[in-house]
Amino acid sequence: MRLAGKTALITGGTSGIGLAAARTFVREGARVALCARDGKKAQALAAELGPGSVGVHMDVSDLDSIAAGAVLASEALGGIDIVFANAGITVFKPFADWTGEDFDKLFAVNTKGQFFTVQKAAPFMRDCGVVILTGSIAAKTGQPNMALYAASKAPALALAKAISADLLSRRIRVFCLSPGPTKTAVFTSEGPFANGAEKALATVQARVPIGRAADPSEQAEVALFLASDASSFMLGTEIVVDGGKSQL
Ligand code: NAD
């Protein structure tokens, strides 16, 4: 029970890596606030997680919604120990096709949304808490069709360092978790590959030294490590969980 008695606010909590983290955190004794644009879905999934966890409406592209969601989550949980700012959108396009709208949309969620999730939740955090920002190895490996997605994910590491400094006096430690290819909605027909999701997964998996994409639970186990006392002498740093894709 590595998170016994702890509470966690998780954005993007109703699917993929966020939901896997919620299940892992609850397994280890935490109560969580699943934050999502679909508040009803968040409530239903939180009820499945067990007593003490809650679902909260939060659209991270809207600062008022983030602020309101942080208040609700904190009230329901009785304070917050862990913030997992994980909500994100993935868009891939050929270089010449990107529009100003794409730019604004990606940065509104992946960068602005992430920063303000932490800023609005921080007043409700207990000292010695942990913040995890989801980055991406797309920010460190030059790959075609990913320019604006990669750019919108690069700030996660800079924010982890700068916010660690801002929150140092409260001993809140901030991390960037940078996943490589992970089998979530990104690799379904809902994701950026649309009709070619299966082919895209096979192509991507062939480029991962370990030979496969991650299961979301493998990202969640690393988030658990960061959120727990096991990472007590770490802060302001990045952990890459990519099967070696950005390393070999
Ligand atoms: P996912 O689509 O299951 O999760 C993304 C979540 O963010 C969804 O629940 C979605 O509803 C939520 N979201 C999007 N816009 C939102 C908004 N405005 N307000 C609130 N919530 C919003 O996919 P995932 O793979 O679990 O993604 C989680 C994080 O991991 C994202 O930040 C993504 O960029 C990152 N990531 C994923 C991969 C991968 O291969 N799956 C690789 C690197 C990084």
Could you describe the 3D structure shown?
With 248 residues, this protein is of the alpha/beta class. It has a single domain, classed as Rossmann fold, CATH 3.40.50.720. 41% of the residues lie in helices and 17% in strands. The chain is built from 8 helices and 7 strands. The chain has helices at 16-27, 39-49, 63-77, 100-121, 147-153, 155-166, 197-206, 216-227, and strands at 7-11, 31-36, 54-57, 80-85, 125-134, 173-179, 238-241. Strands 3-2-1-4-5-6-7 form a 7-stranded parallel beta sheet, with helices on both faces. The model has no long low-confidence stretch (mean pLDDT 97). The structure holds nicotinamide-adenine-dinucleotide. Nicotinamide-adenine-dinucleotide binds at residues 11-12, 14-18, 36-37, 58-61, 86-90, 109, 113, 134, 136, 179, 181-182, 184-186. Nicotinamide-adenine-dinucleotide is lined by residues 11-12, 14-18, 36-37, 58-61, 86-90, 109, 113, 134, 136, 179, 181-182, 184-186.
**Side-by-side strand order of the widest sheet:** 3-2-1-4-5-6-7
Name the overall outline: globular
Distance between the termini: 35 Å
Q: Going by CATH, what is the homologous superfamily?
A: NAD(P)-binding Rossmann-like Domain
Mean pLDDT: 97
Write down the domain tally.
1
How many β-strand stretches?
7
Instruction: Name every ligand kind in the structure.
Output: nicotinamide-adenine-dinucleotide
Helical percentage: 40-55%
Residue share in β-strands: 15-25%
CATH class: Alpha Beta
CATH architecture label: 3-Layer(aba) Sandwich
The Rg value, from CA coordinates, equals: 17 Å
Main pleated sheet:
7 strands, parallel
Q: In terms of structural class, how would the helical and strand content be classed?
A: alpha/beta
Oligomeric nature of the chains: single chain
Tell me the CATH topology: Rossmann fold
Count of runs of 4 or more consecutive helical residues: 8
User: What is the H-and-E element order?
Assistant: EHEHEHEHEHHEHHE
Low-confidence blocks of residues: none
Protein name: SDR family oxidoreductase
Domain Ketoreductase: 6-171
Pfam family, one: adh_short_C2
Family: Belongs to the short-chain dehydrogenases/reductases (SDR) family.
